[in-house]
Design goal:
This protein is mostly helical. It has one domain (about 1-105). It is about 95% helix and about 0% strand. It has 2 helices and no strands. The longest helix has about 80 residues, at about 30-105. The protein is rod-shaped, with a radius of gyration of 42 Å. The mean pLDDT is about 90.
């Protein structure tokens, strides 16, 4: 008797699963699913469209930052080059003054 109940239960369970799959198949083919799918696609397209200008803005900001950085590096280098020339000129003046002092002191 237990074997019969087990087989009948198994058969009912299989029939229930088949019925659920049939309903799911109907749902997959339904107009509502197609509408939902199209709505999701539109949302994704809108998100991509909205993000594109933000990405472009980020790229422009990056380019401007790089340009400003390059300018700052160039200006800093030029300034350091000028300071080096001035320091070399001061060192030359100091050297000449020392040499004159040594000659005058002898």
């Amino acid at each position: 008797m237990e074997e019969r109940i087990g087989r009948e239960t198994l058969q009912e369970l299989i029939k229930l699963q088949i019925s659920i799959l049939d309903k799911y198949r109907e749902l997959l083919k339904s107009d509502e699913r197609q509408e939902a799918k199209e709505a999701v696609n539109e949302v994704i397209k809108a998100a991509i469209t909205a993000v594109r200008p933000i990405l472009r803005l980020g790229h422009v900001a990056y380019e401007k930052a790089v340009d400003l950085h390059e300018q700052a590096v160039g200006q800093t280098r030029d300034l350091l080059q000028e300071l080096l020339k001035e320091e070399q000129a001061r060192a030359d003046i100091h050297k000449r003054m020392r040499e004159q002092a040594e000659r005058g002191g002898r």
